[in-house]
Amino acid sequence: MKWKEFVLKNIIEYCNRIGSRTFSLSDFTKDKKEVFRLFKPDNKHTEAKIRQQLQFLRDDNVLSFLDNTGHYTLRGIDLLEKEKQEIHSLDISKETPERKEYLVETYVRDVAWAKKARNIFGEFCLCKNCNNTFIKDDGLRYIEVHHIIPLCKGGEDALWNLSVLCAHHHRMAHYSDIRTRIQLEKFLLKEIQCRL
Ligand SMILES: [Zn+2]
Ligand SMILES: [Zn+2]
């Protein structure tokens, strides 16, 4: 196996394990140090080699990263294993990337990125004066987790880009006219910044 394939295989494994498509390069290399050492025992510059492969993967549009944060987001696969399990009754394979993302956000409950957002931002819609909520069978409140900037447009599975919305406002964020969508996006980015 070549370096690039090997690095990608390990990124997919790592993202599945942490339950997020966005990961920090330093955590990833720390976690996989031994794996990469065993892959090419003679290579003395493993970290540089990995960074170079990440660059190649970015050129292939498999990864993306925002400058200077040391975080990468995996794009090459559509769903993480846990997401697949949670929405197994839906066939979203033919959906457009944006619609797919909306469906994942709406149905996935238990993956790491959704849990993280609920823990930090709570279980009430972030829109001003919105009291749209109900209690589910399990006694918890219903809330949906939304990527403010869609992953397919360069957003990340990271807290700065996550928010919690009621079902109505979540639909609005995806399906309203462009002006309303941009307004809501700006509002949420600001709101999240204040809460972090
Ligand atoms: Zn959404
Ligand atoms: Zn709402």
Commentary on this structure:
The structure is a single chain. By secondary structure, the protein is mostly helical. It folds into 2 domains: 3-74, Orthogonal Bundle (Arc Repressor Mutant, subunit A); 81-195, no CATH class. Helix content is 51%, strand content 9%. The protein is built from 8 helices and 5 strands. It has helices at residues 3-18, 25-39, 46-59, 81-86, 97-107, 112-121, 167-175, 178-195, and strands at residues 22-24, 63-65, 71-74, 144-147, 162-165. A 3-stranded antiparallel beta sheet has the order 1-3-2. Strands 4-5 form a two-stranded antiparallel ribbon. Strand 2 (63-65) and strand 3 (71-74) form a beta hairpin. Helix 7 crosses helix 8. The longest helix is centred in the C-terminal third of the chain and has 18 residues, at 178-195. The mean pLDDT is 92. Residues 102, 105, 146-147, 170, 173-174 line the site of one zinc ion (ZN).
List the helices and strands and how they pair.
Blueprint: H1 3-18, E1 22-24, H2 25-39, H3 46-59, E2 63-65, E3 71-74, H4 81-86, H5 97-107, H6 112-121, E4 144-147, E5 162-165, H7 167-175, H8 178-195
Antiparallel strand pairs: 1-3, 2-3, 4-5
Helix pairs in contact: 1-3, 2-3, 7-8
The protein binds zinc ion (ZN) (2 copies).
The site of one zinc ion has 7 residues, from helix 5, strand 4 and helix 7.
